[in-house]
Design brief:
The structure is a single chain. A seven-stranded mixed beta sheet has the order 3-4-2-5-1-6-7, with helices on both faces. A two-stranded antiparallel sheet has the order 8-9. It has a single domain, classed as Rossmann fold, CATH 3.40.50.300. By secondary structure, it is of the alpha/beta class. Helices cover about 35% and strands about 20% of the residues.
């Protein structure tokens, strides 16, 4: 895992490389700006490819930036796991409220659902309660308004969404349509070319899709070793 103390580990350096173009696109002063470029969805074709691990590490790495704050949204509402990676346990029912609760309750303010972490400049929005109409909620005007509020309230904020797998749920496709940038995690030697092509076809309306080739083997001093993410 990337650590907030900024230690120069190999994984920290890799996520520094990954985050830089995303940040530049989010706040670019050159050319036509990306609409809601600071809304970044991390997704995968199927479960187990390491998307949540990548989303959490990307968020931590971005939180180390001097000029930006980060909101990490656990949008995998069917199988939320971001709090586990951050070692956050719910201390009460109130501390479990999240994205779905904000969409369902007009009286609940976004700020009431945001949870501070022990990492400076990193805030978490949990998935919240499960709901049988999650797809419709994510496609609703309430969600569009919420995303605009999240994107525009703080001009220096980056918002990372850990989404459900794209080939298993309709929620992920609905969410993708609202994002400024998408990071697609592809598991090395596992994800099929067909799956990647199918996902990219689903995302063809999105202008900014980036790939992370995850769990790849690499050379180090002449030997192969498995670098496992997630």
């Amino acid at each position: 895992m990337v650590t907030p103390d900024g230690a120069r580990t190999s994984i920290a350096e890799e996520f520094r490389l990954i985050k830089r173009p995303l940040i530049e696109k989010a706040f670019s002063q050159k050319g036509k700006p990306i609409h809601h470029g600071n809304l970044i969805m991390v997704a995968s074709s199927l479960p187990g490819e390491g998307k949540t691990f990548c989303a959490v590490n990307l968020a931590i790495s971005m939180a180390m930036e001097l000029d930006h704050t980060v909101l990490l949204v656990d949008a995998d509402v069917a199988r939320p796991s971001v709090p586990r990676y951050l070692q956050i346990r719910a201390e009460s029912e109130a501390s479990e409220i999240g994205l779905m609760d904000v969409l369902l309750d007009d009286n609940l303010d976004l700020a009431d659902a945001m949870l501070k972490t022990n990492i400076d400049k990193l805030t978490l929005l949990r998935a919240g309660r499960s709901h049988h109409r999650a797809t419709e909620l994510l496609a609703s005007q309430s969600m569009i308004a919420l995303l605009s509020e999240i994107a525009d309230r703080y001009p220096d904020r980056l918002i990372i969404f850990d989404s459900p797998p794209l080939l298993l749920t309709s929620e992920a496709r609905v969410l993708a349509s609202q994002m400024g940038q998408i990071v697609l995690v592809v598991e090395a030697e596992s994800t099929t070319q067909h799956a990647v092509k199918e996902v990219l076809h689903q995302l063809k309306a999105c202008q900014n899709v980036n790939l992370i080739y995850n769990k790849a083997k690499t050379l180090s001093n002449g030997d192969y070793y498995g670098r496992y993410y997630g």
